[in-house]
Design brief:
This protein is of the alpha/beta class. The chain has 10 helices and 9 strands. The protein has a 6-stranded mixed sheet. The chain has a 3-stranded mixed sheet with strand order 5-7-8. The protein starts with a strand and ends with a helix. The relative contact order is 0.12. The model has no long low-confidence stretch (mean pLDDT about 95).
């Protein structure tokens, strides 16, 4: 069966489903290129305010295509990385709805999202070293950013494989949900309901301030962005609506 990335839009949330069913959604060159196109298309759609990434049942993503990796040079590897790097670079809020196994490059895909939700069958397995393969695509940076040095070492060096509940306990996922895609869409719709430019700016600010050493540095970034938002039409309209609601409730 051919690879695909299917896109459906609900409540301004684009659900991108990666599909390579014969290989449990393994990320080959073709699927990676289709994911890049799908992410860029969703990010450029004025009707989309957030993105959910999930996999064709029953897996999330079983890693890279080993037959391609066996012959890969740095240029080829960068092309394989392109799909989840497009997710990582996306200006819209992104949620991984991990519905099954996230292995190797599939774990990269989940880590590339701003937020991860796990379904009951989710499993997280780095599996690079047991294959004799060095991690790639920024995995070591993402894993340490999410899990800290010890948690990243547990998954990467010591081969710890975690299920949904353990992933939530160690902070790899935000929440475990019975219907993970529906939960991701509901959560994404909250971000998508906010003013689009404000959401993009706030996501960019979160990334910028995450690398700052002091609160004072963050204040200087935020004060300019917040002052700009105060004078936006969206804020003035929402403020007027809130004040009218308060006025009606106090009568």
């Amino acid at each position: 069966m051919a690879t695909a990335v299917r896109t459906t839009i609900t409540d301004r949330v684009a659900v991108l489903t990666v599909s390579n069913p014969e290989r449990r959604n393994a990320m080959n060159l073709d699927l990676s290129a289709k994911l890049v196109d799908a992410v860029q298309s969703a990010a450029g759609d004025d009707g989309v305010g957030a993105i959910v990434i999930t996999g064709e049942e029953p897996a999330f993503c079983a890693g890279g295509d080993l037959s391609e990796l066996a012959k890969a040079d740095p240029a080829t590897l960068r092309t394989v990385y392109a799909g989840f790097l497009a997710v990582a670079d996306c200006p819209l809020p992104t949620i991984a709805a991990v519905n099954g196994a996230a292995v190797g490059a599939g774990l990269n895909l989940a880590l590339a999202c701003d937020l991860r939700l796990a379904g009951p069958r989710a499993k997280f397995d780095a599996r690079f070293l047991p294959l004799g393969l060095h991690p790639g695509g920024g995995y070591t940076w993402m894993a340490q950013r999410v899990l800290g040095p010890q948690g990243a070492a547990a998954l990467t060096l010591f081969g710890d494989v975690v299920d949904a509940d353990e992933a939530a306990r160690i902070g790899l996922v935000y929440r475990v949900c019975d219907d993970v895609v529906a939960a991701a869409v509901e959560l994404g719709s909250r971000a998508a309901a906010a003013p689009p430019d404000l959401v993009r700016t706030t996501k960019a600010t979160l990334r910028l301030t995450a690398g700052m050493a002091t609160q004072a540095e963050a204040v200087e970034v935020e004060v300019r962005a917040q002052a700009a938002s105060v004078h936006s039409d969206e804020f003035q309209q929402r403020l007027a609506a809130l004040q009218a609601k308060i006025s009606r409730s106090s009568r």
